[in-house]
Request: fold
Amino acid sequence: MPREFDAAKTGLTDMTLLLHFCRASTAIVLGALVLSTASAQEPSPAPAVEPAQAAAPEPQNDPLARGKYLATAGNCISCHTREGGAPFAGGVAFKTDFGTIYSTNITSDKTAGIGGWTQAQFTRAMREGIAANGEHLYPAFPYTAFTKVSDEDLGEIFAYIKSIPASDSKPPPNEMGFPFNQRSLMSVWNTLFFKPGVFTADPKQSAAYNRGAYLVEGLGHCGACHSPRNFLGAEQSDQAMSGGVFNDKIPGGAVRRWSGVNLTSAESGLKLWTPEDIVAYLKTGHSNRSASYGPMNDVIGNSTRHLSDDDLAAMATYIKALAPIERSPKVALDDKTQRAGDTLYTIHCGTCHLPTGLGATPGTELGAPLVGSAVAQAPDPASLINIILYGGQVLSPVPEKAWKSMKALSDNLSDEDVAAIASYVRANWGNRGGPVTAAQVANQR
Ligand code: HEC
Ligand code: HEC
Ligand code: HEC
Reply:
């Protein structure tokens, strides 16, 4: 049996099926496939929604407007629109080690798109990951989260999707060799890891909490990048939202690794964020704690900034209520790394982030707080390394009290330098996070 597998963590009860599955040694093959597709989820750069197309907040009385609003909450456009292509016409490449999957055309075109689908077929795709022709869809399409969306909302999303102008654009066929092109393998994966089913509200919690849970866990699919996955690429429910990994495409076809931070209230997560910080961040890309600078620019630009203040407040309520899951260790550095890190930090970072790491407030020339920063302390240091090497690229329009984009420092620093600084930032001021190696930095170049 593959060594990292922990049946308890997967919530798996049918050991017989699992053993049979592993003995057939399909597991490795399937795992590799799913892991790689799952880790190459949302594409970039995605077209920002034109302000005129932005979903109107709280479109109470117009089902079509509500459908558009919900589709925006699900960020369908980011994954289903390729650069220069018609909106929702698909063709976005999801590169994996085993081949490339293309997102489908979901415009109202009867043949190229899903204009010929029935409501029942659409609901089955969203809730069970099965296409109209009965074939299994890959979980690069986050049906594992969309399964939670209510019938009513799926009806309104479908009505909106049907109103999207038809495009006959056909995505290229997937480039996947045997056995990865066998969609039927997904039925085994689904049996092991996927629990279909609509969100059920927790009666002990407030309406805001339940609305927030519905949006974060369902349409928002935040766990796709913020939850760790097991060796078969399934999100680990017992560690949900405690930090994940996401591979983004960069021009030239290469892939850059990112870490989705710990969103729970752990010290290495959002402990120091107020609900207002979370709302401001999801609304504008800026908060008193930090600015978005990576894949969150697409998430915020195409999705969350178009949501109503009530919905953002609900999401913040739910996120703040996530029980802390701490995966970043407290580490004392060896003297050599501590001294090197201290010197390099003082030269390259301290003027903006201050010797205390406390940073400043937005609207100044200075840097965001590194003390308690979720990016600095994430279980995987990829996003921390990225901002040092490539700087930040804050979302526009830039609000009045905003952070400036941090500049790239890759030219001035060797891999060893970046590793020492990153380790230093994680090991001081009460911060958490394992030391960073030069190899991890090299991997981000
Ligand atoms: C993280 C990226 C991502 C997001 C977000 C996303 N999709 Fe997709 N979707 C995909 C990919 C990739 C496929 C193709 C999967 C495959 O071929 O197995 C797909 C397939 C589909 C299909 C199946 C179509 C067919 O012809 O078989 C439907 C329907 C669909 N998506 C609807 C939506 C809707 C509606 C939303 C927003 C609520 C959405 N998707 C959001 C990536 C995404
Ligand atoms: C495509 C992957 C992806 C998705 C989907 C995603 N995130 Fe993120 N998130 C990231 C990454 C990567 C970072 C860190 C770098 C950055 O700014 O992009 C991050 C950072 C954050 C931060 C912390 C910012 C900081 O500076 O400490 C918050 C809060 C956050 N995300 C909330 C959310 C919420 C809420 C959702 C769902 C609506 C969500 N994210 C969906 C990838 C993602
Ligand atoms: C010229 C000022 C400046 C310098 C020098 C600078 N930064 Fe920054 N840094 C910023 C600003 C402004 C932000 C917030 C905007 C952004 O994300 O681009 C930021 C954001 C960050 C973040 C993200 C915090 C979060 O929670 O999202 C980290 C981590 C970081 N810097 C680390 C460093 C390190 C390490 C160095 C030295 C190698 C450094 N910075 C040098 C100005 C600076």
Observations:
- Confidence is low (pLDDT under 50) at residues 1-56.
